[in-house]
Write a structure and sequence with these properties.
The complex is a heterotrimer of chains A (643), B (100) and C (172). Chain A is mainly alpha-helical. Chain A has 27 helices and two strands. In chain A, a hairpin with a 2-residue loop joins strand 1 and strand 2. Chain B has three helices and no strands. Chain B has a domain of 68 residues: Helix Hairpins. In chain B, 78% of the residues lie in helices and 0% in strands. Chain C is built from eight helices and no strands. The longest helix of chain C is centred in the middle third of the chain and has 25 residues. The chains are: A mainly alpha (643), B mainly alpha (100), C mainly alpha (172).
Amino acid sequence: MSKYLLIPVLPLLAFFINIILGRRYLKDNAQWVSIAAVLGSFVIAVSSLFDVISGSRFYGDIYTWVVAGNFRASVGFNIDELTSIMLIVVTTISSLVHIYSVGYMHGDKGYYRFFSYLSLFTFSMLMLVMSNNFLQLYFGWEAVGLCSYLLIGFWYEKRSASDAGKKAFIVNRVGDFGFALGVFMIYLTFGSLDYRTVFNSLSMHLNDPLVHMNLGITAVDVNLFTLIALLLFCGAVGKSAQIPLHVWLPDAMEGPTPVSALIHAATMVTAGVFMVARCSPIFNLSPFAMNVVAVVGAVTAIFAASIGLVQNDIKRVIAYSTISQLGYMFLAEGVGAYSAGIFHLYTHAFFKALLFLGAGSVMHAMEGELNIQKMGGLRKYMPWTYWTFLLASLSISGIPGFAGFFSKDEILWQAYSSGGPGRLVWIIGSITAFMTALYSFRVFFMAFHGEFRGTHEQEHHLHESPKVMTIPLAILATGAVVAGWVGIPSLLGGGNQIAGYLGHVLGHPKGEGTGMQEMMVMGFSTALGILGIGLSYIMYGRRSELPQKIAAAFKPLYTLFYNKYYVDELYSYTVVKPTLWIGKNILGKVTDGTIIEGVVNGVPGLIGWFSARFRRIQTGLVQEYAAVMAIGILIIMVVLIVW
Amino acid sequence: MVPIQWYLWLSVIVFSIGVFGFLSRRNIIVIFMSIELMLNGVNISLVAFSHYLQDMRGQILVFFVIAVAAAEAAIGLAIIISLFRNKATAHVDDIDEMKG
Amino acid sequence: MLAEIFFAYFAVVIVLTSILVIASRNPVHSVLWMLLLFFHIAGLYLMLDAEFLAAIQIIIYAGAILVLFLFVVLLLNLKEEIKGRPFSRIFVIALVLAIGMAVVISSTMKLLPPGPVGQYSMDMIRATKGGNSSIIGRVMYTEFLFPFEIASTILLVAIIGAIVLAKKRLRS
């Protein structure tokens, strides 16, 4: 138990040490505390993974956090298969990003602040995944949101960075509101927030008339479990940047690149996926909610991929790729293949963090240049970055043998085999796989091949990143290749251990199919991936005039993609501007200007009016005070005698 | 044998004259003497009670009253001196810094 | 009969001097009237068989406190003050309050206990060697030892306080 307690506490201690001592004393040595703490967490996480594999799980409360009447909430841990996988993902990526940041953030004046925030984030994320109740989950959920805000706006002097931070925070509020309502509904229904209590009493509530009551919110039959599931999913949509709340994630790229890799690719944004998997018993009871999850995931996947095809900002392309891959995970969970979703989360963490850190390495060499149109030919200057980026791109494109292939293939197969709407979802997923390969290699070819298109000074400055950055890249590249080998499907002679491992918690998907069909699905998606890479090579690797021709031929579609379907503009006109108008004209002028100002100025005015009259009593003459005192004494004596 | 009521009446009269002097005089030294008058009025009744109730505690109390009166006179007169040094007045109604 | 006559004499002088104390325009006169008042109060104490207090009254009140008053009156040059009106603007209110207080206090007289309750009868005092002073001393140093010590502290505080207040500010 105390061993598990150390996992989140170490980064928390590092946070306190850095935030208190960093500015004055640690300065450029701030990384040591944070890195030591996160490596400590990593070692314990690995040992707890072995614990779980050997069958010893942990479930229990550490500390009673809130007691109010019948309400009771604890801080507790739930170490099971799902948590152990998440622990490995979080601590591994976090450790590597910490190390990478030593090089990337070198010389920044907020160096100590950066590392303290990273530690705080690691703590929050670990609390989130280790939680054994919904309140602690919510705490971690909000705390990672806070860290995300702090780190997106890390360079707060930059207007766009602080705006992006606010945007991320506010958009997340929308989702979190739903999530909070979901948690309230769980408490109202089950009278507890403890996972085990809630999930074990689900079956008892199946016959509860309340559950079958049609709440009649829409034309659809919305029963209680559907409502809870949808409210929880609301939170996941916000945190994991799914349609329609995806708008914050591309802007979040204003933060330092290691942050993008850790928070906005590998860990925090996958919290929604984790949460849905954790609440799978609830989701399983509501086919409607499951379909919503699947459809939102599938639509987000193809939607974000299509935007990613035409963006020029290297980090934004990867950000849309992240949204798209998160859509994949939800797609898997929506068809009931939770373990496939978590498996993809796990492999995705490696190759997506690698892509971001590779992009960061490129930016480092290009002095902060983000536009891939101005890159090119970086291959010969940055061999390490080049090869690792290639491995990550191959992995995300689903080329057989790489990590991404196994998880993506598992998702597509599960979608296909679940039947019904799963086939439609499968088709969307397959198209997305093609687009994924296309945009990933577009970035790859434009950045690393061809002629250098930037300025002369930039070209002069080009260099490979220091060892402290390339070694994490190499480790992640290894992960991007081998991480998927724990899930080799039986068709290819593997054991698919991870599905069996997670199956204890998440159950096994119900879909069935023949080996023939599975082979067909696998071959189809692999073919699409290779096709995407090939097309990308032709368009961007060989004939660089072809993209312009295509863009001109499909002008409206290109414009739509390039402007991200105008979602930001839509929100600006429907939500942001009306809100600002109300704030300025109604709240600012009427509520604040008239009502509150009236009260605020009226009360002191009234007091002033009264005191102007009452102050006459204060003559300042001691004898008159004594006379008043004598009157008082007389009254008291009379009262005492008369009684 | 003089009845105790006579002493008490005398005590009340002296005390009330003290109260009147305290409240009405302007000269701060006379005000101080009024306080001594009030204390003496009380002392008379205490000694009278002590005698008529055949209890020594009354006289002991007078003893303490005299001790406190001495202390009070020392402090009060010191205050008067420092006040006079600062304000150059012995009239209490010239001192109204606390006026609201 | 003789006791009543003596009482009447003391009472009349006490009341008259009390009035003169608060009515005199010149504080020096007030102090002197007060001196007379204290001597008569001491006489009253003798009538009440409180010889020790009578002595104390003369030594401390007349001898120490009044002399202190006199010193202060002489220290302060009060020529200007004496010329102004002697009474403040709440003269009438003060009069009403004083009379009201006299009425209220005198109305409590009916609550007196009917007779002697203590052990220190005249016979007992006379039988004791040293009389009144001896008995006061005995009670003071046994039953009232602690208040007695506190009284000494009060006097000490008063001494220090008087010095601090009255001395001139030192320029540091």
